[in-house]
Amino acid sequence: MPALILDGKAVAAETEAELLERVNELKALAQGKTPILATILVGDDPASATYVKMKGNACRRVGMESLAIELPKSTTTDQLREKIDELNNNSEVHGILLQHPVPSQIEERLCFDNIALEKDVDGVTCLGFGRMSMGEPAYGCATPQGIMRLLEYYEIPIEGKHAVIVGRSPILGKPMAMMLLQKNATITICHSRTKDLPKIVGEADILVGAVGKPEFLRAEWVKSDAVVVDAGYHPGGVGDIELKALADKVSAYTPVPGGVGPMTINTLIKQTVDSGEKSLRN
Ligand code: NAP
After folding, report:
1. Whether residue 99 lies in the annotated active site
2. Ligand 1 pocket by C-beta < 6 Å: which residues?
3. Residue ranges of the chain whose pLDDT lies below 70
4. How far is the CA of 262 from the centre of ligand 1 (A)?
5. What pLDDT score was predicted for residue 282?
6. Which residues of 130-160 are buried (b: 16+ CB within 10 A; e: fewer)?
7. Does residue 153 sit within a domain?
8. Which is catalytic among the residues 7, 83, 99, 271?
9. Rounded CA separation 267/253 (Å)
10. For position 120, what pLDDT does the model report?
């Protein structure tokens, strides 16, 4: 039987229509004010510039404003932290996105952690991660939270399932593991020192590929009936998992493109609207 396609593009489009309504309601309540997402781009990496532009476009689609801040490649950690402080103190700004990665001279972790919890709509702070892991309110990290929203939309059972996450980055693998754990999955996290990866991947009821290497996870390792989530996106339109051969084997999968990517941006925008509502409704 062909696998269920977890269509992130369609779910994101459906949510955008709801977000547009919420933003319009807020505008009517708050004298025309909308939630505002501040985006910070440091340096001139073309891929990062494209991602930031896509996020600004998504804000406009739901009737929301964004504030695009571009800083030179030579920016220091202190200068970036000062800019973040300024945005933390700006009551017009409801969410702050610092585009990852920043140039190597900057201590990215220090800068992420300078973002105020209530404006951490991309879910990158240690405080937000800790609170989320403890089941306390916090905005989830955008990519794994987008994946959770997609699994929920398609009513994929999670409780009691063995979820194998390949990758342990702070913005993807680690928060993904904690979110699936919150939903009562049994978790295995794999990384570059993991031994016998094919065997562990073969035990996954839910497999999340977050490795950053094109088609690194091979179709023959994957159990039939698994739910396959591919966070990767590489030139040629392939992800981190060899998906083509899985379409008739697994129970469900996220396509590349059109699966995880649109849900990431959509989650960032949704969480900015959530934050804007908290602030503008008071
Ligand atoms: P990352 O920071 O480079 O982390 C990659 C992870 O993969 C690391 O934990 C690394 O292990 C692990 N790894 C590397 N080689 C491995 C191997 N041979 N066996 C097992 N594990 C291995 O990447 P990331 O930022 O998490 O991104 C992962 C993927 O998601 C990329 O393809 C990226 O493009 C994509 N992504 C997509 C979105 C989106 O919106 N769609 C957003 C973010 C990222 P160690 O920790 O041991 O080094």
Report:
1. yes
2. 143, 166-169, 171-173, 190-194, 197, 210-212, 231-233, 240, 260-261, 264
3. none
4. 18
5. 77
6. ebbbeeeebbbbbbbbbbbbbbebeebebee
7. yes
8. 99
9. 19
10. 98
Q: Residue 234 Cα, ligand 1 centroid: separation in angstroms?
A: 12
Q: Which range marks the domain in which residue 213 is found?
A: 142-261
Say which CATH number the domain at 88 has. 3.40.50.10860
Nearest CA to ligand 1 atom 42: 143
Are both 114 and 164 inside the same structural domain?
Answer: no
d(C-alpha 12, C-alpha 8), whole Å: 6
Give residue 15 CA to ligand 1 midpoint distance, Å: 27
pLDDT at residue 1, rounded to an integer: 80
Nearest Cα residue to atom 13 of ligand 1: 192
Edge to edge, the sheet with strand 227-230 lists 4-5, 252-253, 227-230, 206-209, 162-166, 186-190
